[in-house]
Amino acid sequence: MDLIYGQIRDAVRHASVRARGESIERRRSKSPTKPSAAWTAPCRIGSSQGTALSIVLSSIGCTHARSEEGGCTMCSYLLDGASRNPTAEEFFLQFQTAMRKLEKVGAPLSIKIYTSGSFLDPDEIPVDSRYQILKTISEDDRIKEVVLESRPEFVTEAVITEVRELLGNRSVELGIGLESSSDFVRSICINKNFNLDSFRESVVVGKRHDIGTRAYVLLKPPFMTERSALLDAQKTVTDAISLGTTTISLNPVNVQRNTLVESLWEKGKYRPPWLWSVVEVLRHAYSVSGGAVNIVCDPVAAGKNRGTHNCGNCDSSIVDSIRTFSLNQDVSVFDDLNCECRELWNHVLEHEDVSLQIHT
Ligand code: SF4
Ligand SMILES: [Zn+2]
Prior knowledge:
360 residues; TIM Barrel; 8-stranded mixed β-sheet; globular; binds iron/sulfur cluster; binds zinc ion
């Protein structure tokens, strides 16, 4: 059994490296002083509504994606990265450029710092830049919430102590891509390369410093039927909540360039999840959490072939209700949704395992 498991792991790893192809070399050279992206949007901050500034710092990219492991099967963030790593000064200029978007915006504010990998990885974001960025945030009283993203191996006691000291009594969350609570699914279907214990330890370290964990839950990794993916996401939500996470962020897979998911999709062997499945997982999450955990979902490419979609007729109304739910946590927004395609989705849930057909 171990031998077969190891062989499948190797096959997925090699396929991920192949799918990544030359995308590392083909990355455009970008201005090292501008972030990859920065945008503001309404968001929930504690029990009130405020404004979130999301910043994607342009870095050299995720260590896991650059390694011989080939990165995760659905992720092309490497393509957003820079061909050389910016200096500490350049990273700080990126951050300052993004912060200008908040010049005329009032409190409460949330700052979400993304990279094409892990903000807490010192090989990706120099320790000096991390310090400067967090120090600047600490000096802005409008900022009530900070979200940082990292793989669990960089969530250490020393780093988290520093984060807490710098950010004072603000609400802080660490976004970690748990994806699935099943080590098998995370390893074989996602090629994530860390185990549940590692995630669990990060939650504990965060808790010691009153820092919450935002668990990213993936809906429908490759090699899974709609039904098994739906059940896996629901179980992951339940497990993540019982481990003590403070936010569940549900991410339905979208087909990104130069990924294993894309190569399967191009061969007709992968379909992104149905929006009906997204709604089911959100309903489940709400009922398990009893309102004590924030549940959010901002599906990328929703309604398009590369993103979570239904029949085309009902997609926009369902996506609207998902966004509304993420803002106000009112699960009744899903009550009146209906469309003829719901029957087809039910049919897929029942029969896809048997027919081995991908229902588009
Ligand atoms: S999902 Fe996260 S850990 Fe996986 S390759 Fe992308 S950035 Fe790296
Ligand atoms: Zn429909």
